User: What shape does this take?
Amino acid sequence: MKPMRNAAWLTVVLATLGSVAGGCTTVLYKGPRRPDSEIAALISRDTMVVRVDKLEVREKGQGNYSRFEVLPGYHQVAISLNQVTPGVFTTNVKRSAPIVVCVERDSGHLYQTQARINGDRWVPEIVDQNTQRPIDPF
Assistant: This one.
């Protein structure tokens, strides 16, 4: 009887973790959910996606842990710096106003926004995680 109870508990834990992990994804297209092979996904590191095309998404995501799904094609993405460096006694936070970049996204690809920082200046960079190469904005 005890193994059955452990299996039920494990199922509840795994289902909860799956729903929490999936809860950070925001779908930015109309219609039914599509498979990963038909969409382009956007995640962030040390940055925050503020707007995709004309849709404000700052409040829809989870800051640096957001995931946005869009249809392939050209998109305007507003990105702000959101670098948090925890310390022992203090936490250092760098933030900025958003910078808009225009990029083309391919289906089945995962893209990551990140910051290229040089002293007090920074520029947003979007890296195709499938190829590990930055994509050129236009």
About this structure: The helical segments are 2-22. The first strand starts at residue 25 and ends at 27. The chain has one helix and eleven strands. Residues 6-23 have pLDDT under 50 and may be disordered.
